[in-house]
């Protein structure tokens, strides 16, 4: 089976292999394409919440399994499939956080294996440090908003659906958060 | 609750962020927006990437449709040691989702309440007689009554033969001085309550197609049994064309009279319907007092008989005792009769065949197409009535269930989000 490679929109490269078409079920095909579209973003979002690679993998896997089992419960009138999957992932991640009573911070993040080495791009590295420090000043809910928007790649309407807010409220909160983040970048102290 | 801010600047900045996310480049000319787009790309780059191994493993599971692991949990059977007993079906049984269980429970409760309402909830308010009977004006026992002269008649043309649902021998009166009590659902005596004895009677004339007369007659008997009454007399007239009519004399427990009449009216078309009630409380009270007086006199005579000084005096007392016994018997019968008449309503049902249906009487506008339409409308009306009753139960229950579900969701959401601090 031939693999396909796709480049993510960000600075780093993401390698995603195409999911082979499932012959036995069109539903499964639909789910496979949904998985294909959302897997890296869901993982990134979950990882930003749980701050642990192994846990993020468990939770992501659990979220997709739940989504697969409940695929017939999806209703188009309640939002996009992406928002639906992110909602399931969010619940799984929050359940996991609650179980473990983990209040992780970005400072406690494990080393990102895919990050470029400091020697390669010193300026990029410095900028990332600044951004990470700024992220550290955010509250958990604000960081979740950032994760949904920038790592999950959701639209404001989808974020609103996942968080149970109105779209305009989600936009406002996002704007406030990004403003706060920008100010924190300007004033790292 | 704060109102979201809607400013052009905010919209422009959010748009710039979206553009940066969509294109992966910095597109804006505005310095502030450029800065936001740089930040956007930096934040996007912060996203973790899944490992190849994890991606491959999860993809395989997606392809396989997330096969369930066969981890059947044994049910907890602490007192049973059945190692060889396999219960795969039981192990596989999973608890249905909460909304499903809630829905099923609500439906069951609604059905139960609707059934109880339709069965026991007579919408018509009880009359004086009913209320009086329910308050328990009554004798001490609750026996089924006998049917005086309870043999029925069946007339064939001009001749009549007997066919009636007379009460069973076991139901016949046991004690001569105790009148039967109808099943009221309440027992005991209400101290201070005003005791009224109302003798109630009702008369119905029902009309049905000739070929349905037998069925209606059976319905009358069944209905009487259901209300714990009895058929005192019944007669069905038959002619060349089959059953042409009939007469029934029923005894229905007074508290159930209204409901029984309502149900009787549904068996066939009602031609006439009359009801009456007569207050016999004075007669009843008078007879009771006289009976008590006679009994007291009997006790006194017996005491005097024990102390009689000679045979002549004893003989005189015995004669008076004989007279007293006759008086007591008569009064007992009177009290019993009054109780019988007030505890059980007398219902007379005359059954007629409709014109053109092998019978008699006046023309019936309910025949033919018109009758069918009328029947259909009545059926529809009954269905609507049932639906309204069921809705009256389901709607509040549904609202409560909905509120509970929403509340549970809100609480669960809050508990989850508490993990975010």
Structure overview:
The complex is a heterodimer of chains A (189) and B (421). Chain A has 189 residues and is mostly helical. Chain A has two domains: 16-104, RNA polymerase sigma factor, region 2, helix turn helix motif (Rna Polymerase Sigma Factor, Chain: A), CATH 1.10.1740.10; 118-189, Arc Repressor Mutant, subunit A (Orthogonal Bundle), CATH 1.10.10.10. In chain A, 62% of the residues lie in helices and 0% in strands. Chain A contains seven helices and no strands. Chain A has helices at residues 26-50, 53-69, 81-100, 122-136, 140-151, 156-163, 167-186. In chain A, helix 1 runs antiparallel to helix 2, helix 4 (122-136) packs across helix 7 (167-186) and helix 6 packs across helix 7 (167-186). Chain A is globular and about 50 Å long. Chain B has 421 residues and is α/β, with parallel strands linked by helices. Chain B has a domain at 128-183 and 194-364. Chain B contains eleven helices and seven strands. Chain B has a seven-stranded mixed sheet. The model of chain B is unreliable at 76-92, 119-179, 184-193 and 358-363 (pLDDT under 50). At the A-B interface, helix 1, helix 2, helix 3, helix 4 and helix 5 of A face helix 1, helix 2, helix 3 and helix 11 of B.
Overall strand count of chain B: 7
Neighbour order of strands in the largest sheet of chain B: 2-1-4-5-7-3-6
Largest interface in this structure: A-B, 71 and 46 residues
E-strand count of chain A: 0
pLDDT averaged residue by residue of chain A: 77
Strand content of chain A: under 5%
Largest sheet of chain B: 7 strands, mixed
Low-confidence spans of chain A: pLDDT under 50, at least 5 residues? 1-24, 102-111
CATH architect. name of the largest domain in chain A: Orthogonal Bundle
CA radius of gyration of chain A is 17 Å
Mean pLDDT, all residues of chain B: 75
What is the 3D form of chain B?
Answer: elongated
Tally of separate helices of chain A: 7
Compute the separation of the termini of chain A in Å.
53 Å
Q: How many separate structural domains of chain A?
A: 2
Structural class of chain B, please? alpha/beta
């Amino acid at each position: 089976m031939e693999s396909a490679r796709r480049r993510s929109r960000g600075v780093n490269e993401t390698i995603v292999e195409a999911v082979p078409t499932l012959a036995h079920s069109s539903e499964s095909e639909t789910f496979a394409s949904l998985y294909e579209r959302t897997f890296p973003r869901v993982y990134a979002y979950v990882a930003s919440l749980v701050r642990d690679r192994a846990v993020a993998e468990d939770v992501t896997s659990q979220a997709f399994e739940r989504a697969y089992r409940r695929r017939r419960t999806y209703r188009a009138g309640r939002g996009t499939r992406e928002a639906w999957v992110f909602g399931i992932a969010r619940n799984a991640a929050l359940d996991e956080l609650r179980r473990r009573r983990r209040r992780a911070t970005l400072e406690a993040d494990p080393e990102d294996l895919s990050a470029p080495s400091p020697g390669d791009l010193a300026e990029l590295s410095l900028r990332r440090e600044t951004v990470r420090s700024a992220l550290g000043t955010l509250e958990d809910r604000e960081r979740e908003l950032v994760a949904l928007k920038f790592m999950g790649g959701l639209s404001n309407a989808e974020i609103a659906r996942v968080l149970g807010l109105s779209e305009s409220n989600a936009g406002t909160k996002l704007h406030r958060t990004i403003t706060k983040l920008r100010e924190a970048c300007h004033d790292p102290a | 609750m704060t109102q979201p801010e809607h400013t052009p600047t905010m919209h422009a900045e959010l748009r710039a962020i979206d553009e940066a996310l969509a294109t992966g480049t910095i597109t804006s000319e505005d310095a502030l927006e450029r800065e936001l787009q740089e930040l956007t790309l930096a934040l996007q780059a912060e996203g973790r990437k899944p490992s190849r191994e994890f991606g491959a493993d999860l993809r395989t599971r997606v392809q396989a449709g997330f096969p369930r692991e066969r981890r059947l949990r044994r049910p907890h059977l602490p007192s049973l040691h059945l190692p060889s007993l396999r219960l795969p079906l039981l192990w596989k049984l999973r608890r249905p989702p909460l909304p499903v269980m809630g829905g099923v429970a609500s439906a069951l409760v609604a059905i139960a309440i609707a059934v109880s309402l339709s069965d026991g909830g007579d919408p018509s308010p009880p009359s004086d007689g009913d209320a009086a009977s329910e308050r328990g004006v009554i004798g001490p026992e609750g026996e089924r009554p006998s049917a005086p002269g309870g043999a029925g008649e069946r007339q064939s043309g001009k001749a009549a033969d007997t066919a009636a649902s007379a009460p069973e021998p076991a139901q016949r009166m046991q004690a001569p001085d105790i009148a039967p009590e109808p099943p009221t659902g309440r027992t005991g005596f209400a101290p201070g309550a005003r005791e009224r004895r109302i003798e109630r009677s009702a008369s119905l004339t029902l009309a049905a197609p000739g070929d349905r007369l037998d069925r209606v007659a059976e319905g009358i008997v069944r209905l009487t049994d259901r209300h714990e009454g009895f058929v005192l007399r019944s007669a069905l007239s038959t002619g060349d064309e089959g059953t042409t009519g009939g007469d029934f004399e029923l005894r229905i427990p007074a508290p159930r009279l209204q409901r029984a009449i309502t149900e009787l009216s549904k068996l066939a078309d009602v031609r006439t319907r009359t009801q009456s009630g007569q207050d016999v409380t004075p007669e009843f009270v008078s007879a009771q007092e006289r009976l008590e007086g006679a009994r007291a006199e009997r006790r006194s005579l017996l005491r005097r008989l024990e102390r009689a000084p000679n045979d002549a005096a004893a003989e005189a007392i015995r004669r008076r005792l004989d007279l007293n016994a006759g008086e007591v018997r008569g009064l007992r019968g009177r009290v019993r009769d009054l109780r019988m008449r007030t505890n059980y309503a007398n219902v007379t049902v005359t059954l007629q065949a409709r014109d053109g249906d092998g019978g008699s009487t006046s023309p019936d506008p309910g025949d033919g197409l018109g009758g069918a339409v009328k029947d259909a409308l009545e059926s529809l009306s009954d269905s609507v009535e049932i639906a309204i009753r069921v809705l009256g139960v389901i709607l509040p229950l549904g609202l409560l269930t909905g509120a509970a579900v929403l509340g549970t969701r809100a609480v669960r959401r809050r508990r989850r989000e508490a993990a975010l601090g």
